[in-house]
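Appendix C: a fully annotated inverse folding record. The material below is reproduced so that readers can follow the format used throughout the book. The structure is listed first as tokens, followed by the designed sequence.
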């Protein structure tokens, strides 16, 4: 793939990931699955069970992104494993219903990180956009439910593009849609492999958001999205 080149002219547009960058996805996921198992089976999930849910969710969602499973199939497989792990035997149709109920509870649980609205205000003079993996309807709903949808003029989702991060194609498509030079664009995400590395390969400035301060990455890193304003001014 050919790398797009451009002069160093500053920053014109900032794209964001959604899950665990803008939306506290891990907390929302925990709340939804905990409520579901309590409601359906009177099971209070412990930390080990919640962590198991996070692990299998990532495993099967990655299979969906790679085209190995449909969205519904990956959901049913998650619940097949999770109910077994929690000592319940369920049939395929029950797992399908559980996934539907889970999606409903998850949608009610979407919440922004505390720094998001303040950061958006600080960046009001920049064009903002979204590049996110997942189903476009679900990802769009997250933005609508948390009242930030209107701030992002360009929104690209892997389901629509047919390519998922870390494939560089989805980032290149964002560059084309923006009409900006590649060195005038920043991408902010929480995952080095899917967000940061592909941007560096094609020349997009990338920023890792690490709110817990756990990363030892050598990449440009911030602990709060409000730090973006000073960082952008430096790059300009």
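Designed amino acids, in order:
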């Amino acid at each position: 793939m050919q790398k797009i080149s451009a002069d160093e002219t500053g920053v014109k547009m900032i794209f964001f990931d959604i899950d665990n960058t803008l939306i506290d996805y891990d907390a929302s996921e925990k709340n939804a699955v905990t409520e579901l198992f309590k409601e359906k089976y009177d099971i209070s999930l412990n930390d080990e069970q919640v962590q198991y849910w996070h692990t299998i969710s990532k495993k099967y969602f990655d299979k969906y992104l790679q085209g190995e499973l449909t969205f519904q199939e990956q959901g049913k497989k998650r619940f097949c494993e999770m109910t077994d792990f929690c000592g319940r035997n369920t049939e395929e149709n029950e797992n399908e219903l559980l996934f539907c109920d889970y999606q409903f509870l998850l949608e009610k649980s979407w919440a922004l990180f505390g720094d998001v609205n303040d950061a958006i205000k600080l960046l009001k003079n920049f064009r903002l956009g979204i590049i996110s993996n997942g189903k476009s309807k679900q990802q769009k709903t997250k933005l609508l439910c948390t009242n930030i949808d209107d701030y992002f003029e360009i929104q690209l989702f892997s389901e629509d593009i047919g390519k998922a991060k870390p494939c560089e194609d989805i980032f290149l498509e964002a560059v084309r849609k923006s009409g900006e030079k590649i060195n005038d664009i920043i991408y902010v995400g929480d995952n080095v492999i899917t967000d940061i590395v592909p941007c560096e390969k094609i020349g997009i400035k990338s920023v890792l958001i690490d709110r817990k301060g756990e990363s030892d990455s050598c990449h440009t890193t911030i602990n709060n999205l409000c730090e973006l304003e000073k960082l952008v001014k430096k790059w300009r």
